[in-house]
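Students often ask what a holo structure prediction actually looks like on paper. The answer is less mysterious than it sounds. You provide the chain, you provide the ligand, and the output is a string of discrete structure tokens encoding the 3D arrangement of the protein together with adenosine-5'-diphosphate.
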Amino acid sequence: MARTVTDIILLGPPGAGKGTQAHRLVEERGMVQLSTGDMLRAARSSGTEMGRRVAEVMDKGHLVTDDIVIGLIAEKLADPDAAGHAGFIFDGFPRTLAQADALGDLLERMGRPLAAAIELAVEDEVLVDRVSGRFTCGNCGEVYHDVTRPTRKPGVCDACGSTDLRRRADDNADSLRQRLMEYYKKTSPLTGYYHAKGLLVRLDGLAPIDRVAAAIAAALPAPVGA
Ligand code: ADP
Ligand code: AMP
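The corresponding structure tokens follow.
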């Protein structure tokens, strides 16, 4: 049987569960997660000029400019190390129509059609609890929550054993309000954009993590090697 390369977008407001599900897809299907949020956080902690510029924008909950994030994604797509895997998961990208057009062009030039844009639908009231309880492993990026997904051993990552567990500077109520505003103004129109292309899959992001993972798996072609 032909090997299936499946490139997908995870869409949804901050706290919808995109990073959580992307991690599952990396582990379970050997896909590659491309999170512009993670790339920007790496840039800001590297102390570069670009990092300094984006840190202030991110902390206020605004969107970083299209040219910066499109540049980051284009660089990753050009990386030969990323070839031969089961597919890309675009997590938190695209967030504007300009980014969506740019991604379409990049993938078309590579001869890789998108398989799906999966929207995780979650109501605003739930998102406050989601982001205020979020913490992640600084070593492997595993995503946890104080209530819905605590570590088995307090202070220790289940996945890699690291004790470097972190909270995000922008996971506060003020920043979340601004991030939601940006989401509804600039990102939510992408659901219509991908619906028109026949690629939108809308899933209930309020379901437990395992159920959301099963719904995503059901929406995708069989994994490589299955
Ligand atoms: P996003 O990447 O969309 O911003 P995350 O994957 O970081 O969202 O999830 C936000 C928080 O919500 C995390 O603390 C995560 O553990 C928790 N979470 C994710 N999915 C679910 C779910 N289906 N049910 C309950 N909590 C969840
Ligand atoms: P995330 O980790 O996806 O929640 O993103 C954290 C922050 O990084 C956002 O609030 C934005 O400031 C910035 N960011 C991440 N991805 C993008 C993107 N595709 N376009 C613009 N800004 C982004």
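The mean pLDDT is 93.
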